[in-house]
Design a protein that fits this description.
Blueprint lengths: L1 E6 L2 E8 L9 H7 L1 H12 L8 E6 L7 H7 L4 E2 H6 L5 E5 L2 E5 L2 E6 L2 E8 L10 E7 L1
Parallel strand pairs: 2-3
Antiparallel strand pairs: 1-2, 3-7, 4-7, 5-6, 8-9
Helix pairs in contact: 2-3
């Protein structure tokens, strides 16, 4: 979903993403089988964006900061606010028998005249994904 918000900076566009993990929903098999699908989706969405507007790419990318789709964006000038501010802090958790898997699958990327000055992962809620709060300013 694409949104254009009027801000003090002027118009800012945001794209909320949730590329697939796998047809079966398995993170394990999806890590090995859907990287290309996620990578193909990002440029397809990018072609419909206004390159002149500051842009936020946000959502559950179903991959960590070194994933192909994230790297495609960072190679084109986007900054991954979550990994830059919080390094590898998990945003997703899933209990499996006696342990809990934890990964950083949710991201906020900024491009253009935006700079993120703070990011928090909130340790609350009943979802497998934790809420993220990011503050971006002109920069």
């Amino acid at each position: 979903m694409r949104l254009i918000a009027q801000t003090a900076l002027g118009p800012v566009q945001a794209l909320n993403l949730h590329p697939p993990v796998s047809p079966s929903g398995s993170r394990v098999s999806g890590s090995f089988t859907t990287g290309r699908v996620r990578l193909d989706e990002i440029p397809a969405f990018a072609k419909d964006l206004d390159e002149g507007l500051p842009t936020l790419w946000v959502g559950d990318f179903n991959e960590e900061a070194d994933g192909d789709a994230i790297c495609w964006l960072t190679d084109r000038g986007a900054h991954n606010a979550v990994s830059e501010h919080l390094e590898s802090q998990p945003t997703w958790r899933w209990p499996v028998e006696s342990m809990t898997q934890r990964f950083q699958l949710d991201h906020v990327l900024c491009k253009g005249a935006l700079r993120t000055v703070g990011v928090q992962v909130l340790q609350r809620g009943n979802s497998d994904h934790l809420p993220i709060v990011a503050e971006s300013v002109a920069g």
